[in-house]
Prior knowledge:
By secondary structure, the chain is mostly beta strands. The chain is 3% helix and 50% strand. It has 2 helices and 21 strands. Strands 11-13-19-16-17-15 form a 6-stranded mixed sheet, with no helix packed on it. A 5-stranded mixed sheet has the order 12-20-14-18-21, with no helix packed on it. Residues 164-172 and 249-253 have low confidence and may be disordered.
Amino acid sequence: MLSVEGQFTFTAEQPQLHCATFFIADPEELISIDYDFVNIDCQGGDFLKVFDGWILKGEKFPSSLDHPLPTSERYIDFCESGNIQRSIRSSQNVAMIFFRIHEPGNGFTFTIKKISNLFPCNVISQTPTGSFTMVIPHQHRNCSFSIIYPVVIKISDLILGHLNSFHLKKPSTGCAGMGDFVELLGGTGLDPSKMFPLADLCQSFHGSAQMKIGCDNTVLRMVSSGKHINRVSFEYHQLDQYELENRKENSIEEFCFPSI
């Protein structure tokens, strides 16, 4: 995984048939991938593809529900685009490349740059501890912040374009009908659309709502109708051994602990 800017070269010393490289930037950044030199045999079965996001074990981030492009358009195949598109920009702070090279000595060189993103939408956290404010300004879109650790997450400020209530998820209730809400998700995979919904928040508040989530992956997801400016501020830290052993102190409820 690469998290720094610079120029990088890969040269195959032997056939490399199933390879990938993951890129990650800070939450407020996008990633630019520029091909400087490519020497692969497209006719012989080699390929070099950029994917706008991450794919891991068949699951995508952002999910198909949250990304602005259909899945087919998130792949940029060098063998198909060639010189037409030698510079590619991600839609969020993560991207990746897939490649297959049969002939030793073949390879490619690319340059990674980071670009400031004023309104980040869809983020994977590089660290198990941090804080973030997500703002969706009059845009009809869904944004997910993914933390690939068991965490305590504390929401300190939530501003939505309407008032309703806070819900723990139940089959017959929830905030989905409100159009603007925040939900907490937990699971073991990367795709938020395949994760378990834990709680809905559809009431603006300033204070503290905290939850221990012992899942491999925790996601805070904001759904916006585009009618309002929605904002949520939160902080998080990885669960330590003491917190795992003293679960009753959680202010709301515990989830996913049996999988730890």
